[in-house]
Amino acid sequence: MKFWPLALLCLAALPARADDMGPVCPDRPGKGTSPCTVDTGHAQVELGLLDESTQRRSGVTTDTGNAGAALAKYGVSDGFDLEAGMALYQFQRVHDASGTVTSSGIGDLFLHAKYQVSSGPVSFVLDPYVKLPTAGGGLGNNHVEGGLVAPLGYDLGGGWSLSATPEADLLLNGSGSGYHANLVNVVGLGKALGAVTLGAELWTGQNLDPAGTVSQYSADVDAAWLVNNDTQLDCGLNLGLNRTTPDLEVYFGVSRRF
């Protein structure tokens, strides 16, 4: 995993197009999705260099995460882009008194079509997606799933912003037969301080599997540094608020527009 610093340097060194545009607007950092799209004719790459979470319950410690989680975007027309994302390496380690079991492989492929309904002080985007089962190492469920994400953003003025990311997914039942709804929402508050933006979020997920609903909650903080109009570095920390949510998650990454 020593490729992280090299990947960061290579991505930041690639030339950007010099069109007169505003700052890059990636989905990173945070669990929410940005209410914006990539400019027409431009590409954007958002790379999670490392994301790892840990959970300890009843003597069992579970670590999950990924490295090289890439999201590639292309602006097809005004307010519309196409996106593809995949973790190039994901892993899970389960450790208890008997030892450690590790699984690893590539992640599933996520395809998005993002359409901006409105922009300005109030931004709204519709972001349907489909997940194709490409995950290796026994880390996926080998089924197609999908959903709709609907990010909203509001410029409060003075460098403050408010956001929400409601999401409805159609996921495979735990039994392996049939599908059920999974409802997610993220509410975030951000503050821009020059080239640095600090954020705080509250996240909830309600997995409505027929075998039993699983509710998860977390309180998250993040920071992003706009190196220039086309490059952003980020990091974040997520804290689980109940026993079904990982105790701690940390991550960092980079985004680049071309």
Largest sheet: 15 strands, antiparallel
* Rg on CA atoms, Å: 18 Å
Under CATH, the topology can be stated as Porin
Helix content: under 10%
Given helix and strand content, the structural type is mainly beta
Full CATH superfamily name: monomeric porin ompg
The total count of strands amounts to: 15
Q: Identify the quaternary structure here.
A: single chain
Count up the domains.
1
Shape: globular
- Low-confidence stretches at least 5 residues in length (pLDDT < 50)? 1-9
Element pattern in H and E: HEEEEEEEEEEEEEEE
Overall pLDDT: 93
Q: Work out the helix count.
A: 1
Q: Can you name the CATH architecture?
A: Beta Barrel
Q: In angstroms, what separates the terminal alpha carbons?
A: 26 Å
What fraction strand?
Answer: over 45%
Kindly provide the name of the CATH class: Mainly Beta
Structure description:
This protein is mainly β and 258 residues long. The protein has a single domain (46-257), classed as monomeric porin ompg (Porin, Beta Barrel), CATH 2.40.160.40. It contains one helix and 15 strands. The protein has one helix spanning 3-13, and strands at residues 43-57, 60-77, 80-96, 99-105, 109-118, 122-132, 145-149, 152-157, 160-164, 167-172, 179-193, 196-207, 214-228, 231-240, 248-257. A hairpin with a 2-residue loop joins strand 3 (80-96) and strand 4. The two termini are 26 Å apart. Mean pLDDT is 93; it is low at 1-9.
